[in-house]
Design a protein that fits this description.
The chain is an all-alpha fold. The chain contains 18 helices and 2 strands. A two-stranded antiparallel sheet has the order 1-2. α1 runs parallel beside α3 and α5 packs parallel to α7.
Amino acid sequence: MALDHVNLAAFLRSLERAAVAEASRAAESGAAASADGGSAVVAGAVAAAAARAAEARVASLAAAAGQLVLRRSKWFDPRHSAAVVARTASLGFTDDRLLQSLTGRMLARLNEAYSRDLLQLLRGLHQHAQRSAAGGAAAVTPVQEPAAEGELQRGGRRRRPPPQPYAGPPAALADGVAVFLLARLPTGRMPPENLDGLLRYLRALSGRPVGPQLCAAVQADLAARLPIYAPKPLAGVLAALAAERRALPPPLLDAAADQFAATAAAHGSGAAAGRFLAAAAALRRHQAPLSEAAGGPPAGAPSEWLGGRPGLLQECLALMARDAPHASPRRLAQWLQALNAVGAPIASLSAGAHPSAVSAGPSAPLAPSSPATTAPSAVALTATASSFLTAHRRAVEASLPALPTGDPLRARLRAGYDGLALPYPAGL
């Protein structure tokens, strides 16, 4: 196979599409066998056998392509290095030598990279790391290829060494990403979605803080470009700053809350809402030392901060209620944890009580001229809270049959309901 780096990346992309098509055909053949009068057990066995055969073919081709990439890695630029890492992760083929080589090529030519290239690389490496940690670096049937000089075995052929689990990124990767962000953020051209992803995967892969210098650059970008931040990247960047124990200036956190509330209905999700509330609660707690050092009034609790922003709470509850039917048990537990962290009075709201804890608070009054920050009526907020609680209960009850009695998620869900002073859903 005489393929250059461009064609190798294209081949892996085509192989990824073929793998999806093969899996779809295998499922259709099993369904057809069942529809023709065969038993469900036989149909399932046929579909499983077809899927295993397809996976073996794809794995063999991915291994062969990976070996060719490894031989030609010196020609790979950032775009194609990232693409190969992402495609092999999608195909389920992990080899530490290949990943380390492509990571090295990315670092060697980092000045040529776009933020989307670096994000694709980090996302792919994170998937490889998860697969290796789960023992997913399964042995692939060795593929016979033309041997290089000095590597011949009996019969003039050689066997490719088995793939190795991913050993993790080199320390230079975290430093390189930090340098990249420090150089690119001041230009104001990096999409917020890419910044969110880079921070998330950088922390996940390196396992260490990103440092105060990078946090300051991220905070400056947030302050300068806040109006273009959609709910998801806004929540993600705030979560990254909260994880670094960054004390965000109160006016910036207030402006971020207004921006989230203004864009939530059109672009938000339940996941972003939960993440935003959890991050806001942590950032509010981190503001206390900053307020004391500045000689100003002490920062109030997260519940007091939320009390002056009923519009934010209503938008977040509406998003979570909308997405609850399709949320995983882990996501449902995370939402309860976020609401507890920010001190949301869900019990009183869902009971129809007057939301005095929400309609007033120590924060500065919101500007009535801004539609995004105008406080909703008590009736609307109460109805939204009730809808969220109903949707959440139904989602939990629907997911309970799949959760064993001793599953830790059950304990997390119970703790969430206890913290909000709410009765458990049926069966929990």
